Amino acid sequence: MVLPAKRPVWIALGSAMIFHLMLLSLQANQQPGPGFMRRWLLDGLVPLERVADYGVRGVWGVWDGYIALIHVRKDNARLVEENNNLKMQLRNHEEAIKEAERLRQLYGLSDTGIGKFVVARVIGRDPSLSLQTVTIDRGLASGVKLNASVVTPDGVVGRVMSVGNLSAVVQLITDAQSEVASMLKDTRVQAIFKGTGSNDLELDYIDNDSDIVEGSELITSGLDQIHPKGLPLARVTSVGPRRGIFKVVMARPMAEMRRLEEVLIIVEPGTPPPDPPLDAQPVAAPTSN
Amino acid sequence: MKRIYRVGAIGKTAITLVAVVVVQGILAHRFRVFGYFDLPLIYCVYYGFTLNRPMASVFIGSILGLMQDSLSGAAMGTNGFSKTVLCFAAASTSLKFNVDQGITRIIALFLFTLADGLIVNILGLTMGTGHGPLAGGRLMDLLMSGVFNTLLGLMMFGIHDRFGHAAR
């Protein structure tokens, strides 16, 4: 029998548990969105996280810039040489770029870039250990929208899964709940790119007779209405044995998920690049019987 | 005077709660190994064992869990439910058992970590946002998390025992 003195504790516990279960039940069968409680908490916590992140970056900067200087001279020499090579390549390409720009204007084509984007800084990672998400320091006030695609120059990172006024939470493509519509860059074979919770991702719906090989590059197909078409996604690392009528294909993302510092959030998708011309087989003339 | 003291204690606790969640997020981003720690859970157990207040533990667990959910993108209430139950369990355990023993703390920290992982996983599966059953690599990650949480928790208790007793 519960003693009267302890009853308020059990009432408090019961009320808290019911409150959390009701909160969960409100989100069942619904798209996860910026509920008022999540938005308030995000707007309250993320500025503090940002301040703390600045502090950590400052300390890291002092360490990297003034104390941990091993291999800096060798790295510097390598970077100078690489920079010189890139400058020469750039000069060679400048004329081609100017010509392409003239032709684009001539034919009235719009810029085939990724569209309008916002740069954001990653200031935190999932503190609950169960999801692959990161927190960024841009939100609704900067034009970030729910389900916006998040990328880096290397490749796709994920999508915005919840957004506050000043910050947002990004679900990485490595998260087990993540699925991205993709295709092979060379053969244009469509597939679904699924996260597994680790850095290895699985490709679904690859036919056994498709000619996918290790090293094949995957890009977004745009069919999920989230990621613009043509963005680099991953590279195939292994093509395994059959599982039913499909192959088991594993891949690694192009973007370095563990070293995310700045990301781009696409707020207005641009014009997707045209598909490359396929090698057409000559069509046999129909024979009449 | 008593009211001022109480407001001060509440303020200090609130700042600590926010700091725990914020630090967890930043450290998990900067250092991969911190992905195995669960500072809010360690704080829950530490608070429950050292202050022995089940009522306050319920609210602290609730708030910590909701803040974790908001920063992680998990369904709101997942970690809230888990931390509420575990915080209360820690405080209740401290009232019934002697939790000053090292072995008790080791077992408690490890088991609470496993329980947290299990509750969150069950709620995730119920909501349809889970990652499947706890098996293989995920189970190993949870066990590693238990070990790391136990080590960090023991350090915190050690500091509390050394400086908390010296202050009295």
Write the layout of secondary structure elements.
The complex is a heterodimer of chains A (289) and B (168).
Chain A: H1 7-27, H2 36-67, H3 72-107, E1 115-125, E2 133-136, E3 149-152, E4 155-163, E5 168-172, E6 179-184, E7 190-194, E8 201-204, E9 217-220, E10 232-243, E11 246-253, E12 262-269
Antiparallel strand pairs in A: 1-2, 1-12, 2-5, 3-4, 3-12, 4-5, 6-7, 6-9, 7-8, 8-11, 9-10, 10-11
Chain B: H1 2-30, H2 39-51, H3 54-72, H4 78-96, H5 102-127, H6 137-167
- Please give the largest β-sheet of chain A: 6 strands, antiparallel, barrel
Q: Work out the largest interface and the residue count of each chain.
A: A-B, 50 and 57 residues
Q: Please tell me what the overall shape of chain A is.
A: globular
State the secondary-structure class of chain B.
mainly alpha
Walk me through what this model shows.
The complex is a heterodimer of chains A (289) and B (168). Helix content of chain A is 31%, strand content 28%. Chain A is built from 3 helices and 12 strands; from the N terminus they run αααββββββββββββ. Chain A is globular and about 80 Å long. The N and C termini of chain A lie far apart (95 Å). Chain B is mainly α. Chain B contains 6 helices and no strands. Chain B has helices at residues 2-30, 39-51, 54-72, 78-96, 102-127, 137-167. Chain B starts with a helix and ends with a helix. The model of chain B has no long low-confidence stretch (mean pLDDT 85).
